[in-house]
Amino acid sequence: MPNAVRVGVIGAGYWGPNLVRNLNEAPGADPVAVADLSEERLEAMHKRFPALRTTTSHHELFDDNKIDAVCIATPVGTHRKLAEEAFAAGKHVFVEKPLAGTVADAEAIVRAAERAGKTLMVGHTFVYNPAVVVVKEILASDGVGKIQYIDSQRVNLGLHQFDINVLWDLGPHDVFGTSVRTTCRSPCIGWTRSRPGFKRPERATYSRTSRTWSSS
After folding, report:
1. Which of 14, 97, 117, 148 has the most CB atoms around its CB within 10 Å?
2. What's the structural domain count of the chain?
3. pLDDT (tens digit, 9 = 90+) per residue, 23-36?
């Protein structure tokens, strides 16, 4: 595809295949390679996308001058290292949410992008969700008056991530979705269900003004 952005994907586990599928269908994008430590996963990817080059070394993607950007869909604890390496290699970077497991790691990734002069994007899918877009348009037109309170209920928890807690994993969707829909400055309060290893449910409050979480 002439002038297409050539993309490599790191991670062929739960979400990586979805990224490859969407890139394959998106105008202007050309998924050319995927890296994963599992030969079995790579074989499955090759069956679905025969033209896709597979490798167990993500360094091959960084060393390939024909690859413009990489998508990182790996455990959260690896995001910072992989993103910094990708920027150092001159790639644009897409990172699945959450961007990192700590604020310090997230800020380090942002600084790496700034130093490289490359684009950093986080996988906040709600930004492009048609329903969210319509709600934002309604609110922007003052169609429902002044927003005092927003309630968000999650009906699908998806895959359980064991390297971060459920709030850090799923919370960004709800907080970011609220940020997109409204300029309400009230904190968003959320509850999570108890998970294996937790004695009780966690309660967390996110303040949009200070951009900090507090839990109890």
Report:
1. 97
2. 2
3. 999 999 999 999 99
